[in-house]
Amino acid sequence: MRLLDSSFKYVPAAQTDVTQTWLRFGYRPTTDAERHARQRTVRGRLRRPALAVAGCRRQCDPQAA
């Protein structure tokens, strides 16, 4: 749609509802249960491997230290 199209309706930013805009384009916010489940997964699986990778970088790449 072009700005000069007669069907274009300008809405000032102060009058927009960001939540409604996101919902109109298909955004679905995560629920508390989904967020907590994802955090438990990340905390349980990635904490130790991330430390191992950081240790390897220091040993393998002299410039990383």
Uncertain spans: none
Distance between the termini: 53 Å
How much of the residues is beta strand, in percent?
under 5%
Structural class: mainly alpha
How would you sum up the major sheet? none
Q: What labels describe this entry?
A:
65 residues; mainly alpha; 55% helix
How would you describe what is shown here?
This protein has about 60 residues and is mostly helical. Helix content is about 55%, strand content about 0%. It has helices at about 20-25, 30-60. The radius of gyration is 23 Å and the shape is elongated. The N and C termini lie far apart (about 55 Å).
How is this fold's topology laid out?
Blueprint (H helix, E strand, L loop, with lengths): L17 H7 L7 H29 L5
In short:
With 65 residues, the chain is mainly α. Helix content is 55%, strand content 0%. The protein is built from two helices and no strands.
